[in-house]
Amino acid sequence: MLVNKIKTAIVGASVVLAGCNGPASHENAKKYMMNKPQKELEAVIEHPNPRKSIYTEAYVRTQSNLDSVAYRDVFMATNASKDSSKVAEFNKIAAKGKMEMHIPTKKLVETNITAKEYNEILDGVRGTFGSERYYERIQYATDSINYRKFFDKHKLMTPKVEKFFNTVSKQIKP
Taking a C-beta distance cutoff of 8 angstroms, is the pair 136, 64 a contact? Predict the structure, then answer.
């Protein structure tokens, strides 16, 4: 009986440790911003409050910040970055897209995607180990949709920009 309890404890510990690689958003931010100033990286990464029992909010804010920086790099590669009205519209995406913590899918719904697309996104994040990863992935999906719609709306998705957009998206995906 004691052996079974020990086996259960070992299995439980290994499952927990398997998911403890740290938040994907923090690791992706470090990789993506490797050649950017450390000061910019520090502005992107949100550090969790050790007094809180849930660190999820800091990780989601980090993902949102990383998405903003990465898609800004894509935007700056276009001529639209010289148009102040487009810059203002682009900046609004970052401000309005941040997830509300207790309603993680609310901002995703506001992207006006179809029910089919919505379900595909949620199917892709279901079963994600740890709430941080779940929320990070929903934040990432929301931002990717919103920024892609911006690029499509302003006809900025040339083959070169689309390739850059897709490359950046893969680098920052949690």
Answer: no
pLDDT digits (tens, 9 = 90+) for 107-155: 788 888 888 888 888 888 877 666 677 888 888 888 999 999 999 999 9
How many Å is the Cα radius of gyration of the chain? 18
Q: Which amino acid is at 93?
A: I
Total domain count, the chain: 1
User: Is 66 exposed, middle or buried, given 0-12, 13-18 or 19+ CB atoms closer than 10 A?
Assistant: buried
What is the C-alpha to C-alpha distance for residues 15 and 154, in angstroms, rounded to an integer?
46
Is residue 134 within 8 Å of 128, Cβ to Cβ?
A: yes
Q: Which of 12, 147, 15 minimizes the C-alpha distance to 68?
A: 147
Residue 163 within a domain: yes
Domain for residue 4, yes or no? no
Task: Name the pTM for this structure.
Answer: 0.72
DSSP-assigned beta bridge partners for residue 103? 100
- Establish if 18 belongs to a structural domain: no
